[in-house]
Write a structure and sequence with these properties.
Cyt_b/b6_N; Cytb/b6-like_sf; Cytochrome Bc1 Complex, Chain C; 19 helices; oxidoreductase activity; metal ion binding; about 5% strand; iron; 10 strands; two-stranded antiparallel sheet; mainly alpha
């Protein structure tokens, strides 16, 4: 006769291992609490997944490339498989990159995948951050997560810069020289920083080795920590969702993480990997063998950075070459001013959630996303910034625009200088008007229904279009957004006629709040009385 002890003794080995691990790590309870986490199903939430999967692909391909790359600036004479370079003097870094491209099995494909994944990683983060910005997903309690995402983007930019500088070809060397010129423009400390970074006079002998350490250890390590923290906060705060029936700030409507979402995520990972691999196999990127090794006395034609550095490049290219002399020191304003603008813009992006929270005075938690049209001022700011970015991207590639479209490079430069100030303002005004127009259209839909295209003649001869009433779900979606009341300073004197003290910050806050939510900045939602009057047949339908 079997006993309970015999049954326990016959438990499968896998179950014993699971019990052992759970007793020491608490895996079962952790998994039970989190594996049924609900995630909403919307295509825009996949943007963050593209970033995550691209980062994984970058790590995997980067590990493979480190096995064959030699981060050294020691001079060697090339005797490898690429015939046109035979007998040419170059650095070990450049020679090993040629070997990876032509001698290592699959090396060129892995190089291409690594570079394309980096571009898609940063593009994905850019679009993902814009989705978070336009929908207001950065509001409490997600301000810290916005900062984590912002830091991931900035660190990704510098990781990409150090990465494409490693082959020591003429294109990347020109970029490193460009960076050195920017460092030298810094007053007082520029020369010291340059000597420290390059290990002596440019180009020095240590820059590739130093960039290599930063590229494969320091920056990826920090990014990995930020990414883990970012995902932990996503789990902790629960996922945001768009307004809809049954969706509130206290629940999430969607599918469980396991098994539905995990299955979809696994398939999407291989889809992203496949698309990146296909692009890498079709479109050549950074063909260093066609550019040649770096020489300090040469400059590559059409020298362009990757797209994410075009903003800073454009600032410097279109800035007039102004200089001033102070106390025996020459300040190169043509480089120094862009170097000051660039971090100021980044800082403004980083702290925007805190600025909007201060302007609105809203300290509540938000888990329901805004439709961009319902926050016209915020949306207009975002579009203005993107417009500014692309204007400077044109400036960063002014030589290519000139050669490809047979334009004057001076005309392009002056266009960018003018558009730098004019284009964001025009984009802001146009976007705000479009958002308000869309709000008016939503209001008309709620009150009168959707246009059906059917024309009906009334008994007295008038022709009208038949409108189809919206479903309750559609009505909820179009009217679920909040309408903020602008902050008011209040009376400047109290009930006794004594003048109140109003600080400058209070005045600024009231002015900004009026600009965000005052008159002509949002369209009033239809009231229940208006809707009842229309649907009862007393209004024009």
């Amino acid at each position: 006769m079997s006993t309970a002890t015999d049954t326990k003794r016959k438990a499968p080995a896998g179950e014993k291992v699971a019990d052992w691990a759970d007793g020491r790590l608490g895996i079962y309870s952790l998994a039970k609490a989190n594996m049924r986490k609900i995630f909403p199903d919307h295509w825009s939430f996949m943007l963050g997944e593209i970033c995550l999967y691209s980062f994984i692909i970058i790590i995997l391909t980067g590990v493979y490339l480190t096995l064959f790359f030699h981060p050294s600036m020691n001079e060697v004479v090339y005797h490898g498989p690429y015939e046109p370079m035979q007998g040419i003097q170059m650095s070990e870094a450049y020679a090993s990159t040629l070997d990876i491209s032509f001698d290592v099995r699959g090396g060129l494909l892995v190089r291409q995948i690594h570079h394309w994944a980096a571009l898609i990683f940063l593009a994905g983060m850019f679009v993902h951050m814009m989705r978070v910005f336009f929908t207001g997903a950065f509001r409490k309690p997600r301000e810290i997560n916005w900062l984590f995402g912002f830091l991931l983007f900035v660190l990704g930019m510098f990781t990409g810069f150090t990465g494409y500088s490693l082959p020591d070809d003429l294109l990347s060397g020109t970029g490193v020289r460009f960076m050195q010129g920017a460092i030298l423009s810094m007053p007082i400390v520029g020369t010291y920083l340059s000597m420290f970074l390059y290990g002596g006079e440019f180009p020095g002998g240590d820059i590739i080795a130093r960039f290599y350490s930063v590229h494969i250890l320091l920056l990826p390590g920090i990014m990995m920590g930020l990414l883990v923290a970012h995902l932990i906060l996503v789990f902790y705060h629960k996922h945001t969702q768009f307004a809809g029936p049954g969706r509130t700030n206290k629940n999430v409507v969607g599918m469980p993480l396991l098994p539905v979402y995990m299955a979809k995520a696994g398939g999407f990972f291989f889809l992203v990997f496949g698309v990146i691999a296909a692009i890498s196999g079709i479109a050549s990127i950074n063909p260093i063998w066609a550019i040649g090794p770096y020489r300090p006395d040469q400059v590559s034609t059409g020298a362009q950075p990757d797209w994410y550095m075009g903003f800073s490049e454009g600032l410097i290219r279109v800035m007039p070459g102004w200089e001033i002399n102070l106390w025996g020191h020459t300040l190169v304003l043509g480089v120094l001013v862009p170097l000051m603008i660039f971090p100021m813009v980044l800082a403004a992006i980083a702290v925007y959630p805190f600025i909007e929270s201060w302007v609105t005075g809203d300290k509540r938690e938000h888990h329901i996303l805004d439709r961009p049209r319902n926050a016209p001022t915020r949306t207009a700011f975002g579009v203005a910034w993107i417009t500014w970015y692309f204007v400077l991207l044109v400036g960063g590639g002014n030589d290519l625009w000139a050669t490809h479209f047979h334009l004057s490079i001076n005309a392009i430069t002056w266009f960018v200088r003018i558009a730098f100030f004019v284009a964001p303002v025009l984009a802001f005004i146009a976007t705000k008007r479009i958002c308000l127009g869309l709000q008016r259209r939503d209001k008309e839909k709620v009150l009168h229904g959707r246009e059906s295209g059917l024309i009906k003649r009334l008994p007295h001869g008038e022709f009208v279009e038949v409108h189809e009433p919206l479903s309750p779900a559609q009505l909820h979606t179009l009217t679920a957004h909040e309408q903020y009341v602008p902050v008011e300073i209040g009376p400047l004197v109290d009930e006794n006629g004594v003048k109140r003290k109003v600080s400058v910050l209070q005045k600024v806050r009231a002015k900004l709040s009026q600009g965000y939510y005052g008159e002509n900045n949002q369209i009033a939602k239809p009231s229940a009385e208006e809707y009842k009057e229309i649907t009862d047949g007393h209004g024009h339908h």
